[in-house]
Every structure is written in structure tokens, then in C-alpha cells.
Amino acid sequence: MNRASAAVRNTPPRLAALCLLGLLPAAQAVQPQQPAPAFDALAGHQGEVRLVDFWASWCGPCLQALPRYEALRQELHASGFEVIGVDVDQRPQDGAKLLQTLHLSYPQVVDPQGRLAELYGVNGMPASYLIDRKGQVRQVHVGFDKNDIEPLRKAVAQLVEEK
């Protein structure tokens, strides 16, 4: 079984079906300059610059992104930046097991049915949404490569300076 089919097998069924069948219309996907859809963990950090990161334990690029987002959070948290992870593992224990090894300090939300992922219009993994202090989505990024972190760092630094 190749990596793609293993990923599909472990994806929450609703999210997998929507992603693979192209049933997440662009009109539903959250875009820059739109208000970020609210959920409890996000609302708890109003007034901060936030990065909402949708991830899963089976996602290779997610495994690269998580510790880099932790480092970025450590660097910029005092300036008003927070990362909020959203684990879409169908089996929450899979995500919990991974988190035990990574020791991430930022809040995590468990979304095994993919409701938040659907609300945001997630169409690939990982998917991140950079949200400014006013609650507007400023960037949407799907996928992850180690070279993505520096442009993100610059964007976050710019947003935390905006009051």
C-alpha cells in the first residue's frame, strides 16, 4: 500500500470523501480576508495572531510541520502569537500518542469527525490558517515543506507588530 492510500485509509471518512471527490466547493473554503470560523479554542485567544493547523498522525508533512510550529510559537508567543492544532485523526488515540512524543506546548483540539475541517473547507493536509488579531484570515496554506517556515515567520512577525 502506498503512502497516499494509507493516508486515505486513516482519514476521517467524511473528510476523506469530501477531499477525494472534490466536494468541498471553493465557495465553502475559507479564504484570506474572510473572518475565521469560530470555535472554542480559537475564541479563547482573541486579540492574538493565531495559526490554526489541521494535522493528523498519518500525515508525513504534518509530522515535519508540528515541531517547527512549536519552535515558531516559542519564538513569538511573548509577542502575541499562538498556534492551535486541530487533530483530525479518526482515532483520537493515534493523535494523542503522537503528541506524547512531541511535547507541544500549544493548545490542541480533537476533531475525529472532521467538523472543523469541513467548516474551514480543508482540502489537503496539513492545512494552516494564519489569523490576525481582528479575526481575519490572512493566509491559507496547504501542505508543508521545511522552506515554508521562514515566509510564515515573516508574516507572523509582521502581524504581531500590527496593533
Concise overview:
This protein is α/β, with parallel strands linked by helices. The protein contains 7 helices and 5 strands, in the order αααβαβαβαββα. The protein is globular and about 40 Å long.
Name of the CATH homologous superfamily? Glutaredoxin
Any idea how many domains? 1
How large is the share of residues in beta strands? 15-25%
* Mean model confidence by pLDDT: 86
Stated plainly, the CATH topology is called Glutaredoxin
Helix-strand pattern: HHHEHEHEHEEH
Just give the CATH class.
Alpha Beta
Write down the overall geometry.
globular
Structural class: alpha/beta
Distance between the termini: 50 Å
CATH architecture designation: 3-Layer(aba) Sandwich
Cross-sheet strand order for the largest sheet: 3-2-1-4-5
What oligomerization state is this entry in? single chain
Quick tags:
five-stranded mixed β-sheet; 17% strand; disordered N terminus; alpha/beta; 163 residues; Glutaredoxin; 5 strands; globular
SSE topology:
Layout: H1 3-10, H2 13-20, H3 40-43, E1 49-55, H4 60-76, E2 81-87, H5 92-102, E3 108-110, H6 115-120, E4 127-131, E5 137-142, H7 149-161
Parallel strand pairs: 1-2, 2-3
Antiparallel strand pairs: 1-4, 4-5
Helix pairs in contact: 4-7
